[in-house]
Structures are given as C-alpha cells and as structure tokens.
Amino acid sequence: MTQAASPTPNTVTHTATNTMADIETSHASANAVPDTTVTLCSSEAEKQNAQIRSQFPALHQMLDDYPLCYLDTAATSQKPQMVLDAMAQFYANDNANVHRAAHQLSARSTLSYEKVRDQLQQFLKAERREEIIFSHGTTESINLVAFGLTTHVSAGDVILIDAAAHHANIVPWQELAKRTGAVIKPIPLDQACRLDVSAYKTLLELKPKIVALCHVSNALGTVNPVAQLVQLAKAQGAITLVDGAQAVAHLTLDVTEIGCDFYVFSGHKMYGPTGIGVLYGRFDLLDTLAPLLTGGEMIKRVSFEATEFGSLPNRLEAGTPPIAEVIGLGAAITFLQAELTPQVQAYEAELVNYLQSQLRALGEVHLYGAFDDNIGVVAFNLADEHHQDVGILLDQQGVAVRCGHHCAMPLMQSLNLKGCCRASIGIYTNKHDIDRFIAALVSVKDLLL
Amino acid sequence: MTDSTSPMTDSTMPSEADFHYSVQDAETLLARFTKAANWQERYRQIMLLGKDLPSLSPELRVEAAQVKGCESDAWIYHLEQAGKHYYLADSDARIVKGLIGLLLGACHGKSRAEIQAFDPAAYFKQLGLEGQLSPSRTNGLNSLAKAMLEATR
Predict the structure, then answer these.
(1) What pLDDT was estimated at residue A307?
(2) Do the domain assignments include residue B36?
(3) What is the CATH number of the domain that holds B135?
(4) What is the tally of structural domains in chain B?
(5) Is B12 at the interface with chain A, CB within 8 A?
(6) B75 CA to chain A: closest CA distance, Å?
(7) What percent of chain A is predicted at pLDDT more than 90?
(8) Per DSSP, what are the bridge partners of residue A372?
(9) Do the two domains A23-71+341-448 and A82-338 of this chain adopt the same fold?
(10) How many CB atoms lie within 10 A of CB B59?
C-alpha cells in the first residue's frame, strides 16, 4: 500500500450497507456503543481475519473477568505460532554459532541465518543482500548510522529531524551533533499534525547533511509521503534515513522506490521476536560507515599492531548475533508475505477509520492528527481527563492501550499535551476488538465524567 | 522525593497548618473497600477519596517535590511534629490522587514506628488493589509508598 493522496483530516467516508448487521449482534456486551452507520468489510475479510487471528496464541486469554482486548500493537505486536515454532525448532535442532566452526550444526545455523538476509532483501526490494544489516532493533539501527556517519559530518552541518520523530530518531542525532558540532533543526508539523512540506522545503535550502524522517508516526499514526520527502532531500545532497518501525507491519515496502539511503525497523513490531532489528543501507554509503561495535566476526585480520575490518554485511555485525531472533524474524516475514494481502491491508485501513469514527461518535473525545489514511494508530484523550486515569480504567476491563508521551515528547509539546492514549491495531485486530474497546471507554466515561 | 524537613525557601514549602487535616484511617477505608462489589465501585471510591484531599497550589507543584516513576505528575511534602508524621501530596491524575489517599489512611498523622510497620503490599491486597502496587506499573504508587516511609527515617 503506497501512500499518495493527502486527504483532509476529520473526514471518514464509508459505504453504509448493512449487510454485516446480523453478524455483529452477538457483540451485545457493547451496551452503550454509539449508533453508527459504518459497516465494515465483507464477511470474506472477516473470515480471513479470523483465520489470521487464530494463529496468535497470546490473544486468546482472560484478564480477570474480561477477555484480552489487545490494542497496543504499535508498542509490540503479538507473535504468530509459526514464529514461536521457528525459534523453538532452531534451539531444539540447529543451535550453533554462525559463521564459525566447520561442523554441520554451524553450517545449518549459518544457512538459516543468511537465508533471512535474502528474505529481507526481497521483502524490502533492496538491490543487494549486503545492504541488510541485523541489529537489535530500530534504536540500535539508528545509532549504527548516527555513529557510523561521524566522519561525514563537520561543525556547522545541519541535521533535519521530523518533529513527529520517536526519541530513537532524535537522540542519536543529538549525540552526533555533540561529537561534531553539527546543528539539529526540527522539521515542523502543520496545524493538522502533518509534516509541513513548505517549511521543509525552506529548511532544505540550508543544504542539510542529514535528513531523518519517520515513515509512520508512532504516536499519531500519520503517514509521511516519504518518497517525495526523500527526493527533495536528495536534490539538496542530504543523506536520508527513514524510521519504518511503525510502517513495516502494515505497508508493502520498496526501499528502492522510497530512494532513501537508510531504512530501519524492528522485528517485534512486525510479528517477529524482540531483540532483532534491521538496518537497510544503500551499499555505497553503508560501506563507509564506521562500525559502532567492534570485535567478533566483523574483522578480516587482527594483530596487536593493526586490525583490518571485514566487508559488509559482517563488518557492521560485531559479536554473536541474536541468531534465534533472526530466524524468528524470517518466519515473521514468511507470515507477512503470505497474510498481508491488499485485502487485509484494506481491512486494516477500514478498522482504523472505524476506530476513529466510533471515537468521534462517542463525543467528548479529542483525536489527534486523525486522517483517514493513518496507519495502525489512533491517538486520543477523553475530554480533559488524564490519560493515565483512562488507561488504568481500560485495563480494569482487559483493554490494553498505551498511555503516555509515546517516546515523542517534542511532538507532545507541540500539541501542548502531557500525553495521550493510543489505541493501535494489527493484522489480527477485528471489529469486535474495536467495539469492546468503545464499550469499555463508555464505562470509563461513566466513571470519570 | 525531597525531604521536606530539610531547609528550603519558605516560598516552596506549604505552611505547617496545611499539613493538619484529617483523613479516613486504614480500617475505615478497608471496610469501605471490601463493600465494593466490582472494579467500578472500587475506582469510584478511589476517586472520591482523592477529591476529599487537600490540593497543592501550582507554586508547590515543583520538580523538587516530585515523585519519580509516575506517568502522571505527583508531588509530596512531609512534616514531622511532636513525633508524628504528616504528609501533603497531590497528583494531576485522579486515580493516583485517590491511591495517595489510601496511603495517607495508613501513614498520615502516625508515629515513625507505626509507619515503619506499615506493609503496603498486604494493605493493597486487602483493598483488592494489589495489581496497582506492582513496580512495573507506571502509576507511581510504589514510589509514593517508598517516599512516605523514607521520610520517617
């Protein structure tokens, strides 16, 4: 799903045929769900969703008297059985260190590990397998780049950062600026919480050395037209990094089409394990990064006089990598390639719109940056109530949402908020989850307002 | 937590009189909470309790008095007088303020020995709120309980 149009905020359009009405009557627990004319998808999509959902064991549990309603996928996704199985299989059958030892287990382990690199190359549509580096997560990937570029940056160079960025896409650049004397400038958002493209163009006239963007905002779910933004940055000679942590579970990616120099994300937000992340880098530039971590398989030759680093990708993968996690990530990619069809993406998009419209229908709910092309996330507050009170009372009803600043304090400051609640969906989320969440929020409203 | 018995400028300290207010004691609170039939009633009681507590004026809501570990902001002041310990605490979140009320029921106006003997884990379990005391929660209740105990040392 590529993002092209720039729709207006606060307009959610749906075709209101009531073909699903009878199927939804079993959700009678939603005693005070507001009336709605929104009808969600076909029964085919619901069937497909049920099939996907059944693959996630953690979703099927009770929390006291309430079944779990998991709306915190943007923090971390649940894992399908095939990911759990792949990791267990690895430890049960193939466990050995990679790239070492001339024995069969190590050979099998290395083969499985390197196969995931090939999978990722194909998944991201990268040109070369050496452009895929395994890290421990998005944060480490950005740190690898920000450290690795130290010698590329001089005092006075400008680094532009998306004002909606996660702290992981801010702090490593601040540290780079401290080391080099570079200057950080935020790219402001417009009134509606989208990146202000005209302000961005003005900032680009400063000929920034680096431009750091997010693909999808983790706090709001707004989507940047990254291909366009990258193109503008490259025209000014900037090195570009796109944080794809919130995009990768939902969108079909093509790093060549985006055109960025670096694209980073985490395994655990895309149905894979924690502790594994990816750094994609355009080969020529990636090859010039100074390694942040040294030792282990990243070397070619070591002596006490001088050490020669190896070549990509090993050069940037010091130490024993998280092998089982890489293999789990491979299974997650296989899962996504099989299940994240255009129909499923359309269903996810409708769920986000349904969530937005149900929250609006509730009244006394503030939505932030709620566009109809948002991905995965709805940010809101209930009237003037503290987000933490809302979160605690939702938790009492088995509803898991995130409440806080979402590691995007500069964004919260620009919205003049201490924090907000964030409900986020994944490939397994269904309409019933949204209805349960809205019913729970009605109970919270009854208690607080 | 700032030890409010240590010298601070007058403008950042509440007056002594502010510390003298009465709270429902732990036994009354336990009776009140064991009557609560469901979570709605428990949390309604928590918020009512918070409502009855004195508020801290904006000048007193300063970082030096802030309790770390809360997703919401919470501030606490302490006074020791004639062998008794008094607290003034507030939060910008209603449930946290109510939870403060529960802690005060056990600690406010009590002697050092009474406060040292206070077992927050057992107390919140009796109240049916044990989940809220876990250190992994961001409500700061754990830090608030610690701050009240540490102030008596």
Answers:
(1) 85
(2) yes
(3) 3.90.1010.10
(4) 1
(5) no
(6) 16
(7) 85
(8) none
(9) no
(10) 9
Kindly indicate whether the domain formed by A23-71+341-448 is annotated with CATH number 3.40.718.10: no
Give the nearest chain A residue to B91 (CA atoms). A386
User: Does residue B3 fall inside a structural domain?
Assistant: no
* CB proximity under 8 Å: B 99-128 to A: none
Pick the closest to residue A353 from A15, A5, A65, A2 (CA basis): A15
B93 vs A393: CB contact, 8 Å cut-off?
no
Q: Is the distance from CB of A327 to CB of A319 less than 8 angstroms? A: no
CB within 8 Å: A392 and B139:
yes
Q: Is residue B1 part of a domain?
A: no
Rounded to a whole number of angstroms, the distance from the CA of B137 to the nearest CA of chain A is: 10
Distance from CA of B80 to the nearest CA of A (A): 31
List the domain boundaries for chain A. Answer: 23-71+341-448, 82-338
* Residues in chain A closer than 8 A to B71 (CB atoms): 387-388, 403-404, 419
Tokens of A222: 């707004």
Our CA-based measurement puts residue A65 at a distance from the nearest CA of chain B, in whole angstroms, of 11
Residue A248 has pLDDT above 70, yes or no: yes
Residue B51 lies in a domain: yes
The residues of B carrying an active-site annotation are 70
Cross-chain Cβ contact A447/B71 below 8 Å: no
| B139 vs A: CB within 8 A | yes
* Catalytic residue flag (residue A41): no
| Alpha-helical regions (H) of A264-417 | 283-286, 323-339, 342-362, 387-395, 409-414
CA distances from A288 to A145, A152, A160, A234, A284 (A): 10, 9, 21, 18, 7
CATH class of A82-338: alpha beta
pLDDT of A447 above 90? yes
Considering CB atoms only, which of B40, B92, B95 is closest to A392?
Answer: B95
pTM of the model: 0.89
The pLDDT tens digits for A364-391 are 999 999 999 999 999 999 999 999 999 9
Tell me which amino acid residue B33 is. F
The interface predicted TM-score (ipTM) is: 0.90
> In this model, does residue B11 exceed pLDDT 70?
no
Sequence-distant (6+) residues with CB within 8 A of A316 are: A133, A144, A148, A279, A286, A289, A291, A292, A298
- Which residues span the domain enclosing B143? 10-150
Q: Which residue of B has its CA nearest to A64?
A: B39
Q: Is the pLDDT of residue B76 over 60?
A: yes
